Amino acid sequence: MNGEDSTTIDGPLPDADEITDLTVALVQAASENPGGTEAGAVAVLQTACQKAGFVVETHEVAPGRPNLVATLPGGDGPGLMFLGHSDVVPAGPGWTGDPYVARVADGTITGRGSTDMKGGLAAIVAAMSSLATSGVELSGPVQLVCTVDEEEHGTGVRDLVRDHPGEFLGCVVAEPTDLRIVRGCRGASYIEVDVTGRAAHSGRPDDGRSAIYAAAAIVDLIRADHVAMTDAAGGLLGSGTWNVGTISGGQGISVVAPMAALGIDRRLMPDEDAHTVAAWLRSRIAGAGINSDGIGVDVRVTMEMPGFETPADHRLVATAADALTGLGVEPSVGGWSAACDGGFISRDLGIPAIVLGPGDINTAAHQPDESVRIDDLLTAARLYTRMALQLLGPTS
Q1: What does the pLDDT look like over 1-44, one tens digit per residue?
Q2: What is d(CA 216, CA 166) in angstroms, rounded to the nearest whole number?
Q3: How far is CA 381 from CA 103, 115, 316, 320, 358, in A?
Q4: End-to-end Cα spacing for the chain
Q5: Residue 9 has what pLDDT?
Q6: Digit-coded pLDDT (tens) for 114-144
Q7: Contact at 8 Å (CB) between 277 and 288?
Q8: CA torsion, ordered 206, 212, 218, 223, to nearest 10 deg
């Protein structure tokens, strides 16, 4: 996907070796989540940013879990934000080598986090370094924001949006989109349902109240709503979805189940709120008479990540498309079924967002032998450089 770069700047263009070295170093600073071990990867990123001359700040949002903000100063105008995260999902089984000993071969870097999304972080640093040495006076700052805990509960970005200063023309989330422009993402939420019943001997089941039967009835409600939503899907992002990911319950085979629990994923449209969805589910459960006659039901939201949708004609989308075209890459604009921290930036800070990064979330991320092509990292770095120049340069 790497095209010829004709960007005119006075400094060096992004360097493939430097991007490779930083990606390798970040991969080898294992930062699995859950685990709260992002500090090592953030230290690697901090050193690289300081070496490049950026203004770097870190802030612990939890013990050993620092957010990082690295800024290339510009004029007094609004800037351009690049957003990434330092945590990775657990390596899991099935790897052909140590997931945290990065392997570089045949133009590819293999290791946990290479695609999601330490390669993207390295591409951002390389782009900002090129801008720093270019001699071009930018109208506003270029900023890298790297958060912790994106893969679990969004602790880092929630802390960030509480008091993040500054004005920005837009935010580019460098998640792996295979260099496709994603102008909208659904959000995500976790809803947990605890059901209580009344135990009885299985020889006289009518003496008890089965929490498992009640949980099954709730699953039926969820399944019906999922079908109704997906049947009516339309537009960029389709519809919300339900998935009951976990179910547990019961005391023993010979006992009427006194308890059961459901773990539910509910994907959200940009105008939806998880707590409103949870209230709807409570209402449907009550309307169906499930939480009565000895059955209790507790519904609670344990995670919410908002969605967003940036207009197709927004300047940020057009700039990304122009920059890709200039690199010889045919631009593709669409939506994404995954969720990311960009929803918080859009909803809580009012900054328009797109997702655009190297690597493929569907074929590489969260999988054994996760890998990213070095050419794609280099193209991403050149793309980010071009976007910053077009948005913040002298002729912008």
Answers
A1: 444 444 455 556 888 999 999 999 999 999 999 999 999 999 99
A2: 49
A3: 21, 14, 17, 12, 9
A4: 26
A5: 57
A6: 999 999 999 999 999 999 999 899 999 999 9
A7: no
A8: -120
